[in-house]
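Why do we bother with holo predictions? Because pocket geometry can differ from the apo form. Keep that in mind while you read this record for nicotinamide-adenine-dinucleotide.
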Amino acid sequence: MAQVAFIGLGNMGGPMAANLVKAGHGVAGFDLSQASLAAAAQAGVDTFATLAEAVNGAEAVITMLPKGEHVVAVWENLAGLVPAGTLLIDCSTVDVESARKAHSIAQTVECVSLDAPVSGGTGGAAAGTLTFMAGGTDRAFARARPFLETMGKRIVHCGADGAGQAAKICNNMILGISMIAVGEAFALGEKLGLSHQALFDVASTSSGQCWSLTSYCPVPGPVPASPANNGYKPGFAAALMLKDLKLSQEAAAASGASTPLGAAAAALYETFENTGSGARDFSAIIEMLRGSR
Ligand code: NAD
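The structure, written out:
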């Protein structure tokens, strides 16, 4: 079993670190928030007041932070703290440019690095069933894999530095667009006098079938576990959906890709967040589409 440092013990990082502890690893944690540190300590993480103390003696350092600027800043600090050969894994969702910058910081001090964002949300983090999308060298992927397998059930090596973030951004652009498509279809069906169940029974077994419909249906009833049955408690908050759609649009602009529906989805989620709905599940956007919010 290894000594691992975990930096960023929030809604995702906390339960991910707890799963490393359960697997028998020694886990040292650091976070700027006292509440996050206290929760991690309850789960068996050795918590420290500084980054330097937390990474001392770590074979691998995992970061799970809000945005690219946080990851780059923390990795710049790590570069002065950890010896050559240390494995650095970033699991945050960030822009591809920041991910590549983090890799180049690691390379200047001869560390081995992987971008490995996740899908599966806080439920997947707690259950250890996350999907990891990894970008980096074969060597980095091989070294990281045992740790990622402790926290997830599907681990995909997507390509070179930044490829994990690219896959995450593309996947979540599909998700944002498809949730709006499903919401519009239910809103139209309501106007046409269709029951939710009838539309679900047809579309879930026809060409309209998609995850936003069959696993995360935005109306209560057809999929009992979806947030629509629970007052749209997240789940996956609309603010995080907007964050990922904005990342997709930055990436599209930087690479010259044409993503008109991605742009429209980002604009709709921005409007939705401005109604004060950022903390609600992203499937609640159906209320705005109906005109009821
Ligand atoms: P969070 O805000 O709950 O946790 C982030 C933690 O990082 C906080 O505890 C914060 O105090 C800490 N932090 C910030 N700057 C720091 C620094 N310099 N040093 C140490 N700690 C620092 O966020 P979260 O929901 O855990 O999300 C983390 C990442 O995972 C984000 O990039 C998010 O987009 C991504 N993500 C989240 C979900 C989800 O459902 N919550 C799903 C997939 C991916």
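The mean pLDDT is 97.
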